[in-house]
Amino acid sequence: MLTQASPWHAHALQRTAAGLAEPLAVPARMEWTTRPGKGPGAEILGPDLRGKRLLELGCGPGHNAAHLATRHGAHVTGVDLVGLQIRRARSHYGRLNNLAFVASHALHHLQASDERCDAIYSVFGAVGLVAPELLLPAIAQCLSPGRVLAFSVPHPQRGGRVPSADDRPRRDFVSLPDRTRLPIARWEFTTDRWERHLSQAGLRLTSAQEFHDPRMGHWPTTLLIRARKL
After folding, report:
1. Closest by Cα among 39, 43, 63 to 52
2. Which end of the chain is more exposed for a tag (fewer CB within 10 A), N or C?
3. Which whole-number Å values give the CA distances from 178 to 10, 22, 173, in the listed order?
4. How would you classify the pairing of strands 53-57 and 75-80?
5. 3-state SS string over 42-62?
6. How crowded is the C-beta side of 93, counted as CA atoms within 13 Å?
7. How deeply is 187 buried, as exposed, middle or buried, from its count of CB atoms within 10 A (0-12, 13-18, 19+)?
8. 3-state DSSP call for residue 72?
9. What is d(CA 201, CA 203) in angstroms, rounded to the nearest whole number?
10. What is the pTM (predicted TM-score) of this model?
11. In terms of Cα–Cα distance, which of 213, 229, 98 is closest to 152?
């Protein structure tokens, strides 16, 4: 019931109002930012992903997971809190090999898993929407030493915002397809604050990149963080 009351369920409900989605062609590249074609692709997760086990936290309609499974030969599991999103992802890409979609809370899925991943990633997904002091240690537990966590989040300075001065979440909004805006809580950290949380979880920050979308003004729109398990 809590899931059905969430803004993410409302978003998926509007997306699927016309019925289940049709099968789609697999995207030609992986996207990390708000502007398609901008920034890096799958190489952020490693130079050779064939046969590697990848986990996406907040997979939405499954586009990135499908790309990684088909174009790179990885074994990918996409997890999303909203069952309607998982139905949508399966409608798009359920026919593909090496790809599974699971309806679950990201934290619960990680805590229940006894499988080690070669990389875990989140593209405007669970990272930043789940308390980092809980989520990042759970991610670290599912990574072998040297393996990768990568995530993109809305830049904390987008639109002229001031980044969080402490570890508490801030009020943000989800824009629905009908342009309704629903409130959510989001952790909006600078790179330094993300680095501290990563370190506390046993992860070492290896890169941080920011990206702009000219359609959104001169402020950066996306922050892309990469870390390794110690």
Report:
1. 43
2. N
3. 11, 21, 14
4. parallel
5. HHHHCCCCCCCEEEEECCCCC
6. 26
7. buried
8. coil
9. 6
10. 0.94
11. 213
DSSP string, 75-111: EEEEEES-HHHHHHHHHHHTTSTTEEEEES-HHHHHH
Q: At what angle do helices 7-15 and 83-93 cross, to 10 degrees?
A: 40
Listed by start position, the domains of the chain span 7-16+25-32+42-229
Taking the CA atoms of residue 144, residue 118, residue 37 and residue 28 in that order, the dihedral angle to the nearest 10 degrees is: 180
**Cα 170 to Cα 184: distance, rounded to the nearest angstrom:** 8
The amino acid sitting at 101 is F
Residue type, 214: P
Amino acid at 193: R
CATH 3.40.50.150 is the classification of domain 7-16+25-32+42-229: yes
**Tens-digit pLDDT profile for residues 165-185:** 899 999 999 888 888 999 999
Mean per-residue pLDDT, 58-71: 97
